[in-house]
């Protein structure tokens, strides 16, 4: 299913700070609604500049305790395969931005394995372990081998990558596995773990974040209907909603009719 198949919404905020604050408010509302509807909520986090800015805005929000943090499952869309606590790991950066400041249930915090843990340098084994954890949480009735996440966040890279799915990379062609080891990534570090397109598309809502001039070409290219292999951001969608959250600089090359 392509992103075009489910349609998409595009919201443009003035600048990166307004984008982060408005998205934090939107995320807290979405998760509070999910907890009201089915007791728990689930979100998939993204790293990178916009992902970290969003988490910092949640941390600073006066509304952050509108959600019950102990009934929130947090997953990762991708991770840089580095030693535990490495400052370049997405999880390390998220801890600093938000996670250490809120009362999460450690059993609901689903961290992708580091490179120095039990999988010692074996990204494939680490990916398989995370896929097993996802499948266990999906439950026996799930149509996919991952939970139907309430919100899955994706930062859009300047080359249109999302999670650790890079243009023309073989990981983009994966149709069976839900998590893969990514080797030879063009952005450091070269070895990463990533959800695959089928796992991402199982989410109820997929939100793509992009701020800044350096993202304008990627946003225009993905929203112009580029091929999935050329522009991974064009390949993702949620089963209920696909929402692009931009600032004016990132939206500056979109045609006026978008
Ligand atoms: O390396 C990564 O990059 C992307 C985008 O990051 P940005 O700094 O260009 O916004 C991010 O979404 C991904 O999680 C991360 O591993």
Automatic annotation (TrEMBL):
One of its GO terms (biological process) is carbohydrate metabolic process. Pathway: Carbohydrate degradation; pentose phosphate pathway; D-ribulose 5-phosphate from D-glucose 6-phosphate (oxidative stage): step 2/3. Its EC number is 3.1.1.31. Keywords: Hydrolase. CDD domains: 6PGL. It comes from the Bacteria. Hydrolysis of 6-phosphogluconolactone to 6-phosphogluconate. This is 6-phosphogluconolactonase. It comes from Streptomyces diacarni.
């Amino acid at each position: 299913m392509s992103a075009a198949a489910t349609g998409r919404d595009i919201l443009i905020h003035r600048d990166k700070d307004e984008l982060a604050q408005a998205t934090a408010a939107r995320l807290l509302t979405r998760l509070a609604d999910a907890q009201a509807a089915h007791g728990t909520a689930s979100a998939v986090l993204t790293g990178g500049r916009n992902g970290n800015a969003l988490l910092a805005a949640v941390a600073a929000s006066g509304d952050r305790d509108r959600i019950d943090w102990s009934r929130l499952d947090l997953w990762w869309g991708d991770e840089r395969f580095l030693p535990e606590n490495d400052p370049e790991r997405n999880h390390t950066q998220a801890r600093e931005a938000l996670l250490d400041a809120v009362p999460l249930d450690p059993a609901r915090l689903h961290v992708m394995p580091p490179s120095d843990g039990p999988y010692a340098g074996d990204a494939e084994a680490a990916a398989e372990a995370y896929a097993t954890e996802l499948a266990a949480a999906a439950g026996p009735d799930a149509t996919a081998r991952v939970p139907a996440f309430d919100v899955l966040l994706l930062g859009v890279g300047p080359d249109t990558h999302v999670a650790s799915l890079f243009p023309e990379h073989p990981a983009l062609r994966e149709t069976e596995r839900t998590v893969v080891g990514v080797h030879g990534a063009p952005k450091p570090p070269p070895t990463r773990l990533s959800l695959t397109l089928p796992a991402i598309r199982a989410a109820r809502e997929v939100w793509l974040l992009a701020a800044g001039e350096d993202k304008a070409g990627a946003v225009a290219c993905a929203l112009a209907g580029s091929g999935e292999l050329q522009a991974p951001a064009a390949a993702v969608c949620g089963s209920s909603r696909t929402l692009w959250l931009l600032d004016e600089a990132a939206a500056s090359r979109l045609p006026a009719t978008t």
